[in-house]
Every structure is written in structure tokens, then in C-alpha cells.
């Protein structure tokens, strides 16, 4: 079940919040736990007990570590989480590569991938590490820890929330729940839904149609347009989902960390990673890069740490060589920026550095879209063909597609400016019924448009769902 599905929008969410607002305060957290487990069971019924048992093991390890100060108990907790991730996400990858390397024709029983396991693992590891670093200050009862892990808005695809960020909110948030916070959460959710349905899904239909065609039938123009559209699709798909998660949390009284900040206006790859999937970048920094020595060692060690962290980041995204190469690709650019690129680009106009960064990032997204590295090379060769003809597949590029692509580019590159101007304008307006009603009506119109598009197209993938 994803937030943009009919069953969530028309059944799960309305029932959940109706009960949530009606029941006594002391029952709200129990209702969240029950509903979150139901939410996960709906999408992965065979893995629900693994999720619960892994939480029990984490909590037992935390208690024993705090009581007896046994480091090996702490490492058991860490390794159990890493082990589950390695088995469920990477078993097939390692076996396939071993069989390929040994030229074996043997078949093997494939392991199914539990939804959200990458995000869950990072959250659970961060709890154990922060518990150790805080000398037990984060110790809580099991129900509080279970709620933190299974809280359904961030359960499947983040943002990657740390326990210390919401530990106080689990028990003290109720006094912050009012009509204003609920409306702000609802507005954030609907904006995210609009980004997902009206932009990402519309672009995704054309992108899929382009990339399903034989590479020999595609011109340079088609590949470049398809890749550009995919860059906007993945941004509005994932940022829209993050907006929905943050909005749902807000409606419950939780404040989740932001996950995106207009990444396509970044002037270099370093800045891009401060704006894209922010909670993942911060996790990698605090739990991998800094423990490895960060930039406090020699320059060579710093470069090694950067590339290693991004190799791990790439592998975290998916069990294939595509993602490993994608991680190395970004890691190498980060090293090059530290070596000389930053000095060169600092002298260039902003629009050139923004555009060049977008091109670099978009070429990297090709590794997300294709099935293997050989396909990626074929598409790169197609780009170099310099064939700008519109062939018989040009009917794929409808007016609706071009309008959506233009809107996506507008929101991505100058949306930050409009957001500031709009917020300043709204804050300067007196609070009156016209302002409140106008805001509510516009949001409801966006919701109805999104719902109508969802019913009409039936096309509703979610790119990061598989991670």
C-alpha cells in the first residue's frame, strides 16, 4: 500500500484519522502501532513477523548492553540488522554473480525483498548507535521503540527519522495537535500527492514508453528528452512521497526532518547532496563518513572515505552493478570537486554551474532507469549519435507531456524563488476567512485533480518503493 493508492486515500487514511482524533490520548500511540503494522502487513504479510522479531531483538540487545555494558551485545544488534539486509536484499545479487563468474547453469531459490527494508535497517541501526553514544539517555520502553520503527508515514521510504528527533514527540506531541497543524499537514500531503500524480506519473508514462523501445529506433533527441523527463520524474516522485510522509506525520502531531530542498538548483555535486535525500546524506555522514575519519585525516584518506561512502550508498539503493557504479560516479565527482573542479566552476555564472550539475546528475540517473550497464552504454552511444530527428515515435511526446515537463522544470529551477515570495505574501496578509477559505479550496481542487488523474490513468508506480 502506497500513499497515492486509492485504497489508502479513500479507505485507510480516512478511517485511521477519524479514529485517531476521536479516541482518548492514552490510546493514540497504540492505535498508531496497530495501524502501522496493518499498513505493513497489507504490502508484505509474510514479513510482518520478521519486522516485529527484529525490533524485539534490537530492544533486548539495547537493554543488555545498558545493563551489563557488554559491547559484543551491542554489536550483535548492529550485525543482526546488517545481516537481515544482506540476506534479503543482496543474496540474489551475490549468488547470481557467483554463478556467472563460475559459468554455472545452476538455478537457485530466489529470496523475496521485504518492502522498506533499507530504510528500516538504517533507522534501527541509528537507534542502537545513538543509544551507545548517549550512554543510555535514549532508553525507552518497548512500545515506544516499536512505534518509532513502524510509524507508517516513514515506514516504507523515509524520511530516515532518528529516534532522538522524535522521542519527546512520542509522548508530548498531543498538546501541539490543533486545527492549524492538522491543516498544515493535510496541505503538505496534498501538495506531495499532486507532485506524484500530476507530474511524476504523467512524465513516467512517456519515459516508460521511450525506454521500452529498441535503442536502434531512438534518436539523440528522444534519449535526451526521455532522460530529462526521468530526472524530473524521480525528483517529483520521491519528493512528493516525502511531502506526503511529512504531512501525515504533521497530522498526527509529529515533525519529521525535511528530505529535499530544491536539489536541481545546486551549483555542484557537493551542494546537490545537501539538497537531495537529505536524511540519507546526513545518515551517511554521521554513521559512516565521520566514523571512518571524515576529512580529519590525510587528503588521500578523505578521498577514499568519500568514494567508499558513496559506493555503500549506491549499493544501499539497489542490489545491482548499476547502483554501485552510480555511487562511484557521484563519489568521484565529489573528489574531483575537492581537487580542482570547485575552483574552476566558482568563476562561472550560476546558470552555467546549475545547468552543468543538472546534466551530470541526469546522466547518473540513467543508471537508475536501465536494467544493466550494457544498456546504459548503449544509451550513452545513442546520445553521441547527434541524431536530432523526430521519428515515427514522436507521437509519444504529447502536448500534455510537454506542458508537464515545462511545469516540472519551472518548479525545479525557480520554484524556490516563488516559494519565498508566496510565503512572504501570505504572511503579510491578515488572517481572515477569505484567506483561509481560499487556501482550503485551492488545496481541495488540487486533491480532486490528483484523484481524477489517478482514476483516469491507473498508472501509479513509485520508484523508491523497491529500495
From TrEMBL:
The lineage of its organism: Bacteria, Pseudomonadati, Bacteroidota, Flavobacteriia, Flavobacteriales. This is MBOAT family protein. It holds the Pfam family MBOAT. It comes from Vicingus serpentipes. One of its GO terms (molecular function) is acyltransferase activity. The chain crosses the membrane at residues 6-23, 72-95, 107-125, 145-163, 184-203, 209-232, 300-317, 348-368, 401-422, 434-456. InterPro entries: Ac/AlaTfrase_AlgI/DltB, AlgI, MB_O-acyltransferase, MBOAT_fam. Keywords: Acyltransferase, Cell membrane, Membrane, Transferase, Transmembrane, Transmembrane helix. It is found in: Cell membrane. Its main location: membrane. It is a multi-pass membrane protein. One of its GO terms (cellular component) is plasma membrane. Belongs to the membrane-bound acyltransferase family. One of its GO terms (biological process) is alginic acid biosynthetic process. It comes from the Bacteria.
Amino acid at each position: 500500500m502506497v500513499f497515492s493508492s486509492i485504497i489508502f486515500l479513500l479507505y485507510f487514511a480516512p478511517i485511521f484519522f477519524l479514529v485517531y482524533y476521536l479516541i482518548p490520548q492514552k490510546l493514540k500511540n497504540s492505535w498508531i502501532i496497530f495501524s502501522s503494522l496493518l499498513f505493513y502487513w497489507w504490502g508484505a504479510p509474510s514479513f510482518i513477523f520478521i519486522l516485529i522479531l527484529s525490533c524485539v531483538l534490537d530492544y533486548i540487545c539495547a537493554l543488555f548492553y545498558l545493563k551489563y555494558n557488554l559491547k559484543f551485545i551491542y554489536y550483535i544488534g548492529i550485525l543482526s540488522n546488517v545481516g537481515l539486509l544482506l540476506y534479503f536484499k543482496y543474496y540474489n545479487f551475490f549468488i547470481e554473480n557467483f554463478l556467472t563468474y563460475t559459468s554455472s547453469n545452476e538455478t537457485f531459490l530466489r529470496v523475496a525483498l521485504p518492502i522498506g527494508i533499507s530504510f528500516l535497517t538504517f533507522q534501527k541501526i541509528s537507534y542502537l548507535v545513538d543509544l551507545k553514544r548517549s550512554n543510555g539517555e535514549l532508553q525507552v520502553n518497548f512500545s515506544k521503540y516499536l512505534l518509532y520503527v513502524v510509524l507508517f508515514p516513514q515506514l516504507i521510504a523515509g524520511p530516515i527519522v532518528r529516534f532522538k528527533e522524535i522521542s519527546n514527540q512520542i509522548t508530548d506531541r498531543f498538546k501541539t495537535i490543533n486545527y492549524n497543524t492538522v491543516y498544515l499537514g493535510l496541505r503538505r500531503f496534498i501538495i506531495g500527492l499532486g507532485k506524484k500524480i500530476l507530474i511524476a506519473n504523467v512524465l513516467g508514462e512517456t519515459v516508460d514508453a521511450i525506454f521500452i523501445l529498441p535503442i536502434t529506433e531512438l534518436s539523440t533527441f528522444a534519449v535526451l528528452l526521455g532522460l530529462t523527463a526521468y530526472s524530473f520524474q524521480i525528483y517529483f516522485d520521491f519528493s512528493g512521497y516525502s511531502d506526503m510522509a511529512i504531512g501525515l506525520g504533521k497530522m498526527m502531531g509529529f515533525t519529521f526532518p525535511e528530505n529535499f530542498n530544491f536539489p536541481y538548483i545546486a551549483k555542484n555535486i557537493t551542494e546537490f547532496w545537501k539538497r537531495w535525500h537529505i536524511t540519507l546524506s546526513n545518515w551517511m555522514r554521521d554513521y559512516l563518513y565521520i566514523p571512518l575519519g571524515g576529512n580529519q585525516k590525510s587528503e588521500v584518506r578523505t578521498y577514499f572515505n568519500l568514494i567508499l561512502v558513496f559506493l555503500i550508498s549506491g549499493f544501499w539503493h539497489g542490489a545491482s552493478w548499476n547502483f554501485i557504479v552510480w555511487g562511484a560516479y557521484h563519489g568521484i565527482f565529489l573528489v574531483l570537486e575537492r581537487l580542482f573542479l570547485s575552483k574552476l566552476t566558482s568563476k562561472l555564472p550560476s546558470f552555467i554551474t546549475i545547468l552543468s550539475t543538472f546534466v551530470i546528475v541526469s546522466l547518473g540517473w540513467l543508471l537508475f532507469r536501465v536494467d544493466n550497464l550494457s544498456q546504459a552504454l548503449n544509451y550513452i552511444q545513442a546520445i553521441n549519435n547527434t541524431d536530432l530527428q523526430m521519428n515515427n515515435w514522436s507521437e509519444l511526446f504529447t502536448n500534455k507531456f510537454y506542458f508537464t515537463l515545462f511545469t516540472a522544470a519551472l518548479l525545479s529551477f525557480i520554484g524556490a524563488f516563488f516559494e519565498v515570495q508566496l510565503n512572504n505574501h501570505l504572511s503579510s496578509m491578515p488572517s481572515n476567512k477569505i484567506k483561509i477559505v481560499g487556501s482550503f479550496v485551492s488545496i481541495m481542487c488540487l486533491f480532486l485533480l490528483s484523484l481524477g488523474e489517478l482514476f483516469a490513468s491507473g498508472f501509479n508506480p513509485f520508484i523508491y518503493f523497491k529500495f
